[in-house]
Every structure is written in C-alpha cells, then in structure tokens.
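Worked problem 6 (solution included).
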Amino acid sequence: MEDWLQQLPPEGLRDMCSWERLCTFAREPERRKVGIDARVSVAGVRYDVDPDLAGETVIVWFGLYDDQLYVEQGERRYGPYAPSAGPIPLHRYRRFKKTRSEQQADRIEGLAAQVSLPRAALSDYPTLSAPLSPGELVSQPFADPDPFHELTFPSALEAKRAIADHLGLPLAKLSPAQLDALNALLRMTLAKPTVWEHVRQHLEPLYRG
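Solution. The predicted structure is:
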C-alpha cells in the first residue's frame, strides 16, 4: 500500500482527498421514470432534464453532498442539472416535440410488432468452450468514478475551449511562449485543478478583464 502511494503524483493524492472526489463516492444510482414534461423528482425536488429523456426510465445519480443531479441512460450521460425554479401551475404541463430518437423508437416499435421470432430460436444460447480453472483468478481494474468529467477535462480541445471562454478571448492571441506552456501542460495532465491553477497564475493577470 505504501509503495503504491509513493508512486502517485502529488496532484493524484490531492484529487483523492478533494471535496469533488468525496462527492463522486457518495453518489448512489437510483432508477426513476422521467415525466412527459421532461422533469424528474428526487428527494422532493424537481429537476428539468434533457427533453430527449421525457417519458424514459433512467438512472439518476444523486449524493448526500450534491446540489445538482446527474442522469444516465444506457451509454449516455447527462448533467449536471440544477433544481427547477418554481412549481408547475395547476392543470398545466409542458409538451415537447418528439425528438429524433423518439421517432426512431416509434419506427422500431412498429417493425417489431410486424416481425415474429420463433420460440425455438431462443432456446439455444452460446456456452463457454471451457470452464475457468479453480486456480485462475479473475481481476478487474479499478475504475476511477468520474463519468461526468468533474475532475478532468474530456480532452485537450475541451480544456482549451473552457479556458478561452473563461478568459473571453481566443487562445490564438496568447504569446507563443504562453501557448507552448499551455500545450505542454495539457499533454501532461487534464486535471481541472492543475489546469485552472496554471490559468490563474499565468494567464488571468494578463488577459482577463
């Protein structure tokens, strides 16, 4: 355990002990059905989610320390969503135009109703060619719980877009030395605390405002 900790960079230790990391560990998944008004209720609080999720059954992620909601459906992740402002008026609801995925689902449902599959086709399932030996252990690597990219940028391009929006100017206006330093940092790490610290120290005093 001590050898593993010594191999971690200092910023890795800071991320493990940070408040954002604690929030990700405190979240638990819960299955909920989104209303036709694209709203979902968690702990008595309503959240407006993506209209594409209206009427769908999704997995919501909400933790003890969160004030925002994250939604997951299949391989796609949405969020964060803030609580909705104000209650819904009586006998009123919002109706969205069907999205492309909903229209595609309707077409698939129509085709499924026309196609019949014989029961015999479902009786044979592929089996393992050879069982695992008793001495063979199955290992699974630890997956760092950051599916919504709260702690790291998805890519260097997304990091540059966020920095440009923060500074209010295109990064092409940076000096060659500043741009080279930023590119070198993004090749080394995409951790948000490290990137924003570099921006605050080296770019904000010169360009922001």
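Discussion: The chain is about 35% helix and 15% strand.
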